[in-house]
Amino acid sequence: MIKKRKKEAHEKAVAEAEEWAKNSIPPPKPRPPSPEEMTKMLDEELKRGMSFTLVENQPDIPSLTCSICLELMKDPVLHSACGNLFCAKCIKDVSQCPLCRGTLDANSFVPAPKMVTNKIASIKVSCDRCHTTMSLEAFNERHKNTCWFSCPFQCGSTVPFSAFERHCKGGACSKFVVKCPGWIAPLNCEWHGFGGPDYREHVANCQYAKIVPYVNQTDNTIAELKSTVAALQATVATLQGTIDNLKASVQSLNPPVPLPKEEKEEKDDKQEEEEKEKEKEKEIEEEKQEQKRSPSSGCI
Predict the structure, then answer these.
(1) Smaller CB count within 10 Å for the chain: N or C?
(2) Of all helices (H) and strands (E), which one includes residue 116?
(3) pLDDT, tens digit (0-9, with 9 covering 90-100), for 157-205
(4) Which residues of 130-152 are buried (b: 16+ CB within 10 A; e: fewer)?
């Protein structure tokens, strides 16, 4: 009985220890995204750009909605036959009016009246980034370039859209995974991590990151020299073509004059005599050389 109680107590103690260990060990931290995954998310945010949402309950919206794309009209045009309005892009490749079924061609449309474009410009919209309400005209002309919004990667910073990409890729965002500036060839630093303090600390101590400006300057110099060489080669080719054209022009203006028949025969005779004279001199020279090589004759 005592052994049984000891065994049960031991099993209970082991179970309690396992339960305590299971609850005391924190769960593993999730793997941070790779730089490539973060760049893909950033590209999606940049592609999304600056967008807006129409403020509800505006009485003019139904009459300013394109019947093809069912959205607020952009660059509206008026069908001169039926008086309906459409987006210029939507109706561009349509051969039949979707409302009156009339035939459409390049002369079927005129710009929308000024009253229509003014109504569209005054429609109230809400910025999808900062959620500020304003007119569509103010959104397109000013707010797109001046909007400040909270970083979507939740680093706590507020940035303008024009500087958003630089904020992430430049190492300022503490929730965006970036590579060391020295990852480029031939340096190939393999460090990557979150921006903010971690990034600044690494860059301050990385020997590869310190020489990146010199590598970029060298690459820029090489690219400029290659461009200069290509331009000089093109100039040389152009000048050579000009020289060839001038030579052809000179030859066409001064063609070779053929010799008269008598002068030609006289020249041929003279050339033949010169050749014979050369052969005779050659024979005399060979005889002299032969005499020098032969032993002298005489009595001993």
Answers:
(1) C
(2) helix 114-121
(3) 999 988 999 999 998 999 999 989 888 777 788 888 898 998 999 989 9
(4) eeeeeebbbbeeebbeebebebb
